[in-house]
Amino acid sequence: LVPAPLQVDIATVLLHDHAFVSLPVVPLLGLRGLTHLDLSFGALTTIPEDIARLKTLVVLDLRCNALSTL
Known about the structure:
The chain is mostly beta strands. It is 0% helix and 19% strand. The chain is built from no helices and 5 strands. It has a 3-stranded parallel sheet, with no helix packed on it. A two-stranded parallel sheet has the order 1-3. The N and C termini lie far apart (34 Å).
């Protein structure tokens, strides 16, 4: 049995200076109203297609990661 995502009203998530190699999108799906996601200065190598499911996202900061393509 998998629990449903938690529904929380949060507009900004700051995860800069992280060590993520991949982005865990599923936990972010429960953040209603997420408009700003800062993942700058990290170790991301890819961005999953599920990022498009964050419908309210306006700003996605990916500066200074190890991305080879967007």
